[in-house]
Amino acid sequence: MKKLLEIKRYSQVFLLFILCTGCENETKKENIKVVETSRTEHLPYYNEESFTPNWLTPGSQEEKDFHKIPDFKLINQLGDTVTQKTFEDKIYVTDFFFTICPGICPQLAESMIKLQEEFKNDDDILLLSHSVMPSTDSVPVLKEYAETHGVIDNKWHLVTGDKKEIYSLGRDQYFVENDLGVPKSIEDFLHTENFLLIDKNKHIRGIYNGLNRASIAQLITDIKNLKIE
């Protein structure tokens, strides 16, 4: 009987040791996770399709000479012309969609709606969604889509225009398609779940998966950090 009690006592001590060790390991894992996901003082800059981060100092000559989104001329859901002047001294998030998309676009719209709600009272933050089917997504079609999705005019611009210009912006300037080394023509459909964060100087400062809640949460955090950079 005495031996049984001793065995039981040793078993309890061993179990307690295992639990404590497990908790300690979890704590270490959590600490490692915090370190891995922590942000530096400034968000990185991007200038090509591999999205390799470039760590530049804001305001430096290197930053001024870095890749910027060039000017463009498109039309939004109100029939107004949208250019880089529309986003002058603004931070904006951009994506690519089409109104009759049955697949990922409804989820992308939900993510944009979340961003709109988060920053609806912040005039420094705008949203820009390019139609990749401009031949069918006319101004009236975009207007109806905007009304259906609760788009705030002049906060969230849904744009149509010249297909070559839109596809060139997406592939050659925003680098939203990550098919590295695979050449694409105007006949190849542009379709992506990526959201891009653009700063007030027209630099790309982040890429995010518009279908992923954690990625959108990170985007919201990065926008807030970019505002105080």
Automatic annotation (TrEMBL):
The keyword Disulfide bond applies. Disulfide bonds join C101-C105. Cu cation binds at C101, C105, H191. InterPro entries: SCO1/SenC, Thioredoxin-like_sf, Thioredoxin_domain. CDD domains: SCO. Keywords: Copper, Disulfide bond, Metal-binding. Pfam families: SCO1-SenC. One of its GO terms (molecular function) is metal ion binding. Residues 63-228 form the Thioredoxin domain. Belongs to the SCO1/2 family. This is SCO family protein.
